[in-house]
Design brief:
Low-confidence stretches: 310-322, 326-343, 371-386, 392-426
Mean pLDDT: 82
InterPro entries: Cupin_8, HSPB1-associated_protein_1, JmjC_dom
Helix content: 10-25%
Keywords: Cytoplasm
Subcellular location: Cytoplasm
Radius of gyration: 23 Å
GO cellular component, one term: cytoplasm
Protein name: HSPB1 associated protein 1
Structural class: alpha+beta
Strand content: 15-25%
Strand order of the largest sheet: 3-2-4-5-14-7-12-1-15-16
Number of helices: 11
Distance between the termini: 33 Å
């Protein structure tokens, strides 16, 4: 829990039965049960392919396999309208406890207890099945940190530290609790619209079967399947910092729902992510906010009273399932969701803990791309040696080299900052501000953090 940057664990899951969970095996276990797939175009646009712009079908894993292999049987059926050469398919965020609810014995195939989380298994995990090109838009998770086991095929992860948030142009549209999206398409960034993205520093890793990636709290990530079929399993680990994050998320929900619900419905703005069932009422959102504040204050009281014990015995570990997203799909309403638990979670690491991380052949750092090698192409993790990991794909967007350009950027003359000529006059042509432009400023993570602090100070008084 002391890791503050991405790292890959090697040789930790070699004896897990879950490593046999390839698509053929899962297809047999599910016995023809259908699951929902999200379909998107393989063509790369300048705009991220958010879930609101994707198509959706329900299909069996057998039908998915046949489609991904180009079998003639796919001329009919759920994938018949989607040419495999043009589309990818993704069964993402599938809660194992739900899709295998009639086979609870399979939960024990996933052994997060090996990582020091007693009792955590597949029941607290999520399954991801995709075809080549399937991806998740760049985002950060508001709650917890993330452990990801690669089971079949490979996935490429592009990760950015929390300090790069302003360079990634955060947005809450489409709105989804616990996910802050980036306006930048990491695979094809529009540097004219988003010039500050040049300042971001990517940490890129190709995750292979048997390896486990740790995504620390609030690290941005864009994930893409690079093999014909991929299977991953992940679990979000709760942290004590989540209590304040829940207050921030409750404030965000209240503001987004209030402002977007006031718009003319005929505008056709798909502002609500498909994972959110509906825009909740102001009364419900206010109840949610009060519960989040109460949970935070309760945790603070518990932390103060138990500080002496925790310093010698360590924090009490929790294994409650994390309703990271899709609260309603997973059956979690605001009143009962464990996100509003009044217990404290894993503590923030101390400075001395950060100095004693055992990097080596079994725990490999994912380095920023500024640490370049002379090797051309991707460098995957090797489990038999080395304690550093990086990829050199020519995609590093380092700090701007021109001092003058940095000065222009600091003065918000962003249009001129990336131009090579000497004229730094800002562009005079402007377009009318939209509701989403207002929201991008109003619910910016920095603003929401300040509002949450002011609100909690008021409640303490």
């Amino acid at each position: 829990m002391s890791l503050q940057q991405p790292a890959v664990f090697c040789n930790m899951a070699g004896n897990w039965p879950a490593l046999h969970w390839n698509v053929k095996y899962l297809s047999a276990v599910l016995e023809g049960k259908t699951i929902q797939f999200r379909l998107g175009l393989k063509t790369v646009d300048l705009v991220p392919q958010f879930e609101t712009s994707c198509s959706y079908v329900k299909a069996t894993l057998e039908e998915f396999l046949a489609w991904s292999c180009g079998q003639p049987s796919c001329l009919s059926g759920p994938f018949s309208c989607y040419d495999y050469s043009k589309y990818w398919a993704y069964a993402d965020y599938k809660y194992i406890a739900r899709i295998f609810e009639d086979k609870p014995e399979i939960f024990q195939d996933v052994r997060w207890s090996d990582f020091g989380f007693p009792g955590r298994s597949g029941k607290e995990s999520t399954l991801w099945i995709g075809s080549e090109g399937a991806n998740t838009p760049c985002h950060l998770d508001s709650y917890g940190c993330n452990l990801v086991l690669q089971v079949q095929g490979r996935k490429r992860w592009h990760l950015f530290p929390p300090g790069d948030t302003s360079f990634l142009y955060p947005t809450r549209i489409p709105y989804e609790e616990s996910s802050i999206f980036s306006k930048v398409n990491i695979a094809n960034p529009d540097l004219k619209r988003f010039p500050k993205f040049r300042n971001s520093t990517a940490h890129v890793v190709t995750l292979s079967p048997g390896q486990v990636l740790l995504v620390p709290r609030h690290w941005w990530h864009y994930v893409e399947s690079i093999d014909p079929v991929t299977v991953s399993i992940n679990s979000w680990i709760e942290l004590d910092a989540d209590h304040e994050a829940r207050v921030e998320e409750a404030i965000t929900r209240t503001l987004v729902c209030a402002i977007k619900s006031a718009e003319n419905p005929s505008d056709g703005d798909l502002w609500l992510n498909p994972t959110e069932v509906e825009a909740t009422s102001h009364e419900i959102n206010l109840q949610y906010l009060n519960k989040a504040v109460s949970a935070y204050l309760k945790c603070q009281e518990t932390s103060v009273s138990g500080q002496a014990r925790s310093s010698s015995n360590g924090a009490k570990q929790r294994t409650d399932t994390s309703c990271k997203r899709k609260r309603r799909e997973a059956g979690c309403e605001p009143e009962s969701c464990t996100l509003l638990t009044q217990e404290c979670d894993f503590p923030t690491p101390k400075a001395e803990e950060l100095q004693n991380i055992p990097f080596g052949p079994h725990l490999i750092q994912v380095l920023p791309q500024s640490h370049k090698t002379s090797v051309v192409g991707a460098v995957a993790v090797e489990s038999d040696g080395g304690d550093l990991l990086h990829e050199n794909e020519g995609e590093h967007f380092g700090k701007l080299q021109c001092k003058r350009k940095r000065l222009l950027m600091s003065n918000d003359c962003e249009t001129a900052a990336h131009q090579m000529d000497s004229d730094c006059s800002p562009c005079t042509s402007q377009t009318a501000l939209s509701t989403n432009d207002l929201l991008d400023c109003l619910v910016n993570p920095r603003v929401i953090s300040l509002v949450a602090q002011l609100l909690l100070e008021r409640m303490r008084v």
